[in-house]
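2024-03-11 09:14:02 INFO worker-7 job=invfold-0412 stage=load source=structure_tokens
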């Protein structure tokens, strides 16, 4: 039987009512004990790296999870990360950049109802995720939730209560789990072949914010972010519209002229941005310091920018823009 490390971090799956609302209370060992069928699938060990509501998960937490995968990598065939649903997509994206090219799977899951709730989806999700982590075709960072298997850089939470909480945006689901069987919807053999060797990273630059453009926004909002951010992921209108009124465009361009980075994306979840189409976006197209997010999710772009900034920074902390652009385009 394969060996799987369950990395517990808290979240709804581990929560209980303690008088002031649901809060993480159960350990990873207790969660696994709720699903005795796991013992028929693989040998499991549990590592409790934290026990927090995922609302409180930060990039430091991604590094802690990635560091635990790295430390225990040679001892296990796969890894399951139990996580709260609200920021699970961000953590999945972060781990996708911290643990690259892994021939061993790192699979995240959680639940919409606590494990102790009689109607919980936690038991199914945990068992499904263990099965994915034991599948010979499973590689890299993924999310397994509600019967779906989704790439770690494509997941987004789209429902607050339903058990099918996550969708895969702009790329197909990798597969699904039905009746205890994992079926792949993509070329699993090609995925295995592409993962020739794992590469771990242990640095992120958390000084990145997401700026959602809204009608009537004051440019002072952008100026207020400048002292505390090195990059902005800008959610534009439609294909890439940025308002020209009240200095919005000029203030954003001044941001890159000052050596900072903009990553341009769209508020629309599907089909991505193309700033070359409309006049209200062309000022940013091809400009040094401006990176194009394409059809990637905002969650993935935030994590990718944090990762790329950290890798492109020299000993003096200054970011090499050419290296940053190369890294951004490389994965």
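2024-03-11 09:14:09 INFO worker-7 stage=emit residues=331
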């Amino acid at each position: 039987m394969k060996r799987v490390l369950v990395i517990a971090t808290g979240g709804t799956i581990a929560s209980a009512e303690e008088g002031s609302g649901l809060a993480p209370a159960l350990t990873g060992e207790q969660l696994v004990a709720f699903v005795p069928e796991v013992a028929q699938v693989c040998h499991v060990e549990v590592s409790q790296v934290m026990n927090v509501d995922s609302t409180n998960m930060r990039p430091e937490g991604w590094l802690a999870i990635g560091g635990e995968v790295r430390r225990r990598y040679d001892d296990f065939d796969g890894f399951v990360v139990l996580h709260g649903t609200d920021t699970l997509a961000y953590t999945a994206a972060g781990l996708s950049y911290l643990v690259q090219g892994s021939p061993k799977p790192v699979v995240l899951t959680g639940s919409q109802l606590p494990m102790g709730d009689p109607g919980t989806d936690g038991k199914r999700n945990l068992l499904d995720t263990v099965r994915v982590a034991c599948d010979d075709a499973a590689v890299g960072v993924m999310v397994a939730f509600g019967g779906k298997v989704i790439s770690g850089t494509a997941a987004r939470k789209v429902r607050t209560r339903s058990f099918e909480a996550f969708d895969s945006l702009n790329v197909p689901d990798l597969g699904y789990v039905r009746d205890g069987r994992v079926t792949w919807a993509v070329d699993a053999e090609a995925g295995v072949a592409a993962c020739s060797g794992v590469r771990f990273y242990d640095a992120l630059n958390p000084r990145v914010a997401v700026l959602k453009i809204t009608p009537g926004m004051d440019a002072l909002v952008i100026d207020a972010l400048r002292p505390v951010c090195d990059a902005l992921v800008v959610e534009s209108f439609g294909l890439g519209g940025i308002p020209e009124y009240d200095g919005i465009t000029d203030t954003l361009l001044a941001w890159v002229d000052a050596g900072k980075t903009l990553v341009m994306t769209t508020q629309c979840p599907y089909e991505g941005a193309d700033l070359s189409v409309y006049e209200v976006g062309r000022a940013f197209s091809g400009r040094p310091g401006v990176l194009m997010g394409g059809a990637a999710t905002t969650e993935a772009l935030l994590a990718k920018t944090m990762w790329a900034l950290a890798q492109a920074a020299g000993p003096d902390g200054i970011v090499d823009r050419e290296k940053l652009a190369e890294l951004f385009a490389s994965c």
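2024-03-11 09:14:09 INFO worker-7 stage=report msg="Residues 204 and 310 are 5 Å apart (CA to CA)."
2024-03-11 09:14:10 INFO worker-7 job finished
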